[in-house]
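Entry 0007
Protein: NAD-dependent epimerase
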Amino acid sequence: MLVTGCAGFIGFHTARRLLTEGYQVIGYDNLNDYYDQTLKQDRLHLLTTNPSFHFVKGSLENIELLQHLFTTYKPKIVLHLAAQAGVRYSIENPHAYVQSNITGFMHLIECCQLFNVQHLLYASSSSVYGGNDKIPFCTTDRVDQPISVYAATKRSNELFAYTYSHLHHLRATGLRFFTVYGPWGRPDMALYTFANSILKDEPISLYNNGKMERDFTYIDDVVESIYRLMKKGHLQTRNTLHEIHNIGSNSPVQIEYIVQLIERELNKKAHKRYTPIQPGDVKRTYANLQTLIQAIQYQPTTSIEEGVRHFITWYKQYHNILD
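Output (structure tokens):
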């Protein structure tokens, strides 16, 4: 298996699961500096201790290196999780997103087609739903009004995957992730930034005056969903070569409640600053999981209380914070 973005949050956890299941895993990552590289290096170190893991450093824009990788390792299944992440940063630096998320995706999917990959699973995002007023978000909803550059790049990935599936009979599965969180999570995501700020007595910003809601999805549930969809891919018929699934918890939570849970786990109060909604943000995300449940007979089960507790336990251990 090839896992792009293997040093990233979801990529690391999924690669580790695949290794425990006995797969040979080729990891591909450019280790960029969008956030602290130390966290990426620490994740990568845990993977490289397994002899079944092979790491190749490179970017998706390097088509020659990608072709060499496919020629050398001949992966049968590709899990594509590498991307330039972040909704707000995509407004500031759109070119980085076009290069990584569109050009890079085209390079990868072309390699999948040329080298006869059996199944491509690729990361999309709940952000493709834009300002959708229909709740919960369903994979049959129209998604032609993205409100951030990041969302537009992810929707383009879905369209290219469908096209390659149609033209070249490439089996592809799109994964619309809904606010994934948990141990080893990204430092720019809400739980990590809130915990940092609370411990440093710094104010935290609650956008939309604290009324934002997110369908938080615990990382173990995400990995289980990916793994089952990967296994199911072998059973797909020609009529279902391209599928898209929401990977969420089907249970939106107000951001202010997340802060309360973190305060409880840290035994420390937050200094809250209420601010207007930011450009590119949506007020609420909410995943309809009907197609996912039908496909793999599974839906995420980790409660937000349990998930936040696991994250803070890891956070304290990783940063050597004593109770």
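Curator remark: The mean pLDDT is 93. Residues 49 and 132 are 44 Å apart (CA to CA).
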